[in-house]
Amino acid sequence: MSLIPEALVISLREGIKVIIVTILILSYLKEINQTHLNKAYFSGVIFTLIFSIGAALYLVIQGIDIRSEIASIIGLTFALLFIGSIGALYQYQGVNLFGPLKVITQFKRIRELIVFLVPLIMFLPGLIGSILHINMVSIIMGMAAATYLSASSGFALAAGIGLIISRVRWRIKIGSFFTPANLLLFFGIVLLIGGGIKGFAEMSLIPAVQMRVMKLFHDLVHMFITFLLIPDHPLIAGRMWNTIGFLFSAGAAEAFTIGLLLLPPSVFIYKTMAEPLPAFEAKTRGEMRKYIKGLKMERRRKSIPAALAMLVILLSWYTVREEGFNRWHNPKPIPVAESEGHVLIPLARPGMDVMDGSLHKFSFVHGDEIIRILVIKRPDGTLSVCLDACEICPPEGYAQRPKEGDLICIYCKTPIPLMTVGSPGGCNPIPLKALVGAKEAMIESAEILKKYQDVKTGKTKESIHKK
Amino acid sequence: MSFILVGGLTKHYGTTTALKGIDLEVQEGEWVCIMGPSGSGKSTLLNLIGGLDRATGGRVAIDGVEINALSEDSLSRFRREIMGFIFQQSHFIPYLSAAENVMLAQYFHSICDEEEAREVLTQLGLGDRLHHRPSQLSGGEQQRVCIARAIINNPKLLLADEPTGNLDRENTILTLETLKELHKAGQFTILLVTHDPFVAKWAQRVVTIEDGRIVRDELNT
Amino acid sequence: MKKSRWFALFLKKAVMERMGRIVFAAAAITVATTLSVVLFAVPAGISERLGEELKAYGANLVVVPLNESSYINENELLNIHKGPVDSFFYQLYGQANLDKGVVEIVGVDFSQAKQAAMGWKIHGRWPVHSEEILAGAAIKEIIGGMEKVGLSWEGRKKEFKVAGFLETGGREDKNIFLDIKEAQGILNLHGKVSAVFLRAKRENLETVSKEIERSMPSVKVKTLQEVARAEEIFLKRIQFLMAFVTFVVLCGAIVSVSSTMMTTTIERRREIALMKALGGTRLIIGLFFIAEAVLTGIAGGIAGFPLGVLLSQMIAKSSFGSFISVSAYLFFLSIAVGMMIAIAGSIIPVKGALRLDPAIVLRGE
After folding, report:
1. pLDDT of residue A413
2. C359 pLDDT band (50/70/90 cuts)?
3. Are A248 and A214 in contact (CB under 8 A)?
4. Closest C-alpha among A311, A310, A267 to residue A84
5. Cβ contacts (< 8 Å) between B152 and chain A: which residues?
6. How far is B166 from chain A (nearest CA, A)?
7. What ipTM goes with this model?
8. How far is B1 from chain C (nearest CA, A)?
9. What are the C-alpha distances in Å from C306 to residues A421, C27, C250, C314?
């Protein structure tokens, strides 16, 4: 698929992010009678636009590619917004979390500064990253003019949409739905959904969030086990690993990530709706009922952004989920037998040819365990024979992404370019010394077993501590 | 300023003219009886003041709000805040109990409060009739449920259209005594329409309408 | 009591009060939702054998008898080589009795098939003797692990050995393939074939067709495009007919609901007037009625789904000889259609009812 439409999508997405955040900020400022801060906001937007273009240009000229750093920054911003929204919620409900900071915000200049910084925090990394990515696209396509034209059209389209929206008279007072807390939450959602800097393949941050959450969780548990000084005996460690292994299955990780993402909005809704009603002296019971009704409606209104946020998270996760796991090619391993200290992997069979470029897996039984081996042809035509496990992650194995053709670690979702398969280290599958003949590949059982033991006992996972 | 202000009010139904220019002022807390023979226009006047019908000409202002200027839904909202209605026919939702019928008024006003509905009905002597359907109640009891429904939201104005028209003497007196007690508690302005002079005597002031015009307006001694 | 609870209570009592009418309306909706389920469940894929096989064999021409129920003589097939034909592959179709039930059999020349039949996945091996057969993957379930099967037709019977199973994902999975001479023997159609699939270069298609038709007057030659187009038209007609019928029934259901709702709103106009007098806005009052309608629609939708599935299976079995799998999403579709009918049928009566004058209604009737 041509990458040029992707450039349009990227810039359109950035433009729409600007529109959404602008609508929210301006509505909110109107609601709290601070419309004099609008100027500060727009100054921030213009400054961000100019600075991002300038910075991107500088980076391109210098040949510096900081896209992965930018992705980290966006992810960090998202995390801070999400966590910060909970803090703001408590602050709003009377728990004085931020103390002195709150006093500072009484000053007009400080408030102007805060509003000025909003576009910088929300848009700057994304804009720079997107421009860098679009630049990469133009280089790959070799059609700079077309790519940049496409990107500009995306932005122009977004601007057009923004113009139309600004002309429409809105009956709903959007600002009345928001408090500082759920404003931060919503900004977080905007980043979550549109925080990726690539195009179609990576709009949402959810896979990245999931990866990091899984890694963090995995590291924490590993450190805990080490802390408990559980001996590194192959048998015991292996048993323990198997027992808690289910915690690291893809399903558990997904559930944990979604639970984490849904936590702030759920807390919001709970806190907002379950808050006890403040005391009110009413002259009549009818008046009291009216007051309660008014309060309840206010609470429902203030919960809507959080409820929307939950819906958006769930929808986004569902669509991203569809793209991932289900489409990956993960063949069932073909059983092979061990004989005379060797395992023979057939290279061709009726209906199977390991040199066809797709991932092939084989398994053999040793004792009461099933060990998997993967075989795949590299782009240079050589055959790579490895364990279906890496040095770092639980041995869930690898799948092949049909679109990109590369391998992907099922556990941590790290893509492994085919050229690096067969080289040791990191998340790469552990290479095996194999003798590749015309019809078969021969591997010594001892070699397989040794490498596999390292995987099982977590010896190779010591590398995590060094990281 | 008068609580109810009616100026030059007219109402035509096709070629028939029900009201031919009514001017009336009612102060807050007054109990006014609008009396007249059948077809005199008294019910029409009440409906126009209550916003259940639209005048052909003239104005009605209640608590400073011009009724004619309000849209249909705004009028409904205004009505539920300010007014309570008691009808001659004791209109109910037939498949709801007495308590549930009272809660219907609460539903439109704000929120439902079953305990409050129960209390009000008990105060009106219907404590053991809460879960009865209207068809299982006597005429007098039905009217008291109607009163409960009318006062549950603490309205400023009670509009009663021949509330005792279908009742016997005993129940008529019971109903009027209830209204008197409520009025004494100082909560309501009452506009009561009747053709019965006995009922009219209970009010503070009687306005007589004949053939669409006010012919007499005098205080009761 | 919460407002929502009161609302639910009111709804429940209102529904119970006029249960008969609601059941009637729900029944009308059920008919419509049943048909909606059938429309989507019955696969529009009534595939003509020819079209599928043409594509499977990489052929672009097919020779069939002019009279559909007759056959082509094998000895006439020599004429086919007269034109520049790259490859060809003939088959004989028929039915035979398996130990359990009837199965479609296809007589083929296996050496031709091996060259021409692309996309055939063989589990096992190709038959080498004439007494060996290939069974379609679906047949496997019927014959189980049996190595030998008996085929018979009109008194003629023979035992065959299963060399392998065939998987194509298409119609072939339900057939048994055997050597053409054996098939001709069982069916008593010696020297006959049902269809011949050819491959010729695109520029020669017309010459080949004309040549064959000239030398074999009892056949006609169809191109892939013709077959595909005919199929498409046929399919579209079926779909259109079903959609039309469903649409008509939907409209009928809407009208039925509408008339029920009209009666209801007239009956309840005193309630509506009272609610207006008590301060209910048109939206809130209207919601009461729409909620009733939605409940009716949901009931109709829930009832319509199992009936629709049943009807779909009956149609599929009688038309295509096999049951179909019904997607679970059709359950939600059925409910959605039911709700849509109910709401569409209610809007006009409810809107009309809300326009009433409370004073006139409450005056004293």
Report:
1. 67
2. confident
3. yes
4. A267
5. 286
6. 30
7. 0.91
8. 25
9. 53, 14, 18, 12
Q: In whole angstroms, what is the distance from residue C263 CA to residue C259 CA?
A: 6
Q: What is the pLDDT of residues A298-357, one digit of tens each?
A: 888 888 888 988 888 888 777 666 555 456 778 888 888 877 888 888 887 766 778 888
Give the B-side interface with C, CB within 8 Å: 43-44, 47, 50, 52-53, 72-73, 76-77, 79-81, 85, 87-89, 91-96, 100, 103-105, 107-109, 111-114, 149
Q: pTM value?
A: 0.65
Q: Are strands B205-210 and B213-219 parallel, antiparallel or unpaired?
A: antiparallel
β-bridge partners, B85: B159
What whole-number distance in Å separates Cα of residue C361 and Cα of residue B14? 17
Contact yes or no for A240/A225 (Cβ under 8 A): yes
Q: Classify B211 in phi/psi space as left (phi over 0), alpha (psi -120 to 50) or beta.
A: left
CA pair distance A378, A238, nearest whole angstrom: 33
Over 50: is that where the pLDDT of A465 sits? no
Q: pLDDT tens digits for C275-327?
A: 999 999 999 999 999 999 999 999 999 999 999 989 888 877 676 555 666 77
**d(Cα C268, Cα C256) in Å, to the nearest integer?**
18
CA distance A181 to A85: 5
Residues on B contacting A at a C-beta cutoff of 8 Å: 106, 109-111, 113, 116, 152-155
The mean of the pLDDT values for chain B is 91
Question: Cα(first)–Cα(last) distance of chain C, in Å?
Answer: 33
Run of H or E residues at B135: none
Query: DSSP string of A285-312?
Result: HHHHHHHHHHHHHHHHHHHHHHHHHHHH
Q: How many CB pairs under 8 A join B and C?
A: 85
What dihedral angle (degrees, nearest 10) is formed by the CA atoms of B147, B148, B150, B152? 160
Report the alpha-carbon distance of residue B192 to residue B150 in Å, rounded: 13
Q: Do B73 and C282 make contact, defined as CB atoms within 8 angstroms?
A: yes
Tell me the β-bridge partners of B158: B84, B190
Bridge partners of residue C107, in order along the sequence: C92, C178
What would the pLDDT profile of B122-149 be if each residue is shown by its tens digit?
Answer: 988 899 999 999 999 988 899 999 999 9
| Six token digits for residue A292 | 């309660």
> Hey, what long-range contacts does A369-376 have (CB within 8 A, 24 or more apart)?
A370/A333, A371/A448, A371/A449, A371/A452, A372/A333, A372/A397, A373/A333, A373/A343, A373/A345, A373/A432, A373/A443, A373/A448, A374/A398, A374/A429, A375/A345, A375/A441, A376/A400, A376/A407, A376/A418, A376/A421
What gap in Å lies between CA C297 and CA C254, rounded to an integer? 11
Residue A163 contacts residue A95 (beta carbons within 8 Å):
no
pLDDT, tens digit, 9 for 90 and up, residues A183-218: 888 888 888 777 665 554 455 666 666 666 666 666
**The two structure tokens encoding residue B130:** 């809460």
- Binned at pLDDT 50, 70 and 90, residue A461 comes out as very low
Cβ burial B200-214 (10 Å sphere, 16+ → b, else e): bebbebbbbbeebeb
Among chain C residues, the shortest Cα distance to B80 is held by C279
Q: Are C254 and C28 in contact (CB under 8 A)?
A: no
Residues with Cβ within 8 Å of residue A90, at least 6 apart in sequence: A97
- Contacts of A19 by beta carbon, 8 Å cutoff, 6+ apart: A158, A161, A162, A165
Q: Which member of C1, C14, C282 has the closest CB to residue B72?
A: C282
Q: Is A5 left (phi over 0), alpha (psi -120 to 50) or beta?
A: alpha
Q: Taking each helix axis from N to C terminus, what angle separates A180-194 and A285-323, rounded to the nearest 10 degrees?
A: 20
Identify the helix (H) or strand (E) that includes residue B93. none
- DSSP result, A53-93: HHHHHHHHHHT---HHHHHHHHHHHHHHHHHHHHHHHHHHT
Q: Report the first-to-last Cα separation within chain A, whole angstroms.
A: 37
